[in-house]
Fold this protein.
Amino acid sequence: MNAGTHVLKLQFDNETEYNMSSIEFVKTGTIESVSFEALNGKIGIDEKSVELVVNQSLLASSLNGSLDQFSMLVNGVSQPITSVTMDGSKDRTIILKIEKNLIYTDQINVSYSGNCNKFFETGNNVVNIFKFNDKKHASNP
């Protein structure tokens, strides 16, 4: 988690009441020990891009030359990716642009075949194939 103030929302899956006065976070390992994975995705506001949120911060320069290492299927049909960039305001978001308009009912599969080590300063990680169906921009892999 980045330094600064963060809002945490807890949801309990029952009707039991809880009274908490504080929560303590304890570091249990290093970022290098966590597998690099896509957490979720959504169709971009331009309706011609897919925004993938990953679980680790990216090096902006690491996406240079990675265009041919990403692939996308939309409803089972391969779609050429025209650019791969990082969201300038979110260091964990990869933006994949295509020429085709996307809609929320599309079944979108994204995969990466390159070496994820280049995305970070350190790490030995692999991206799993990521699939989602953007249901009103609230998708889960």
Remarks:
- DSSP finds no helices and eight strands in the chain.
- The chain has one domain: 31-133.
- The two ends are 21 Å apart (CA to CA).
- The CA atoms of residues 43 and 50 lie 5 Å apart.
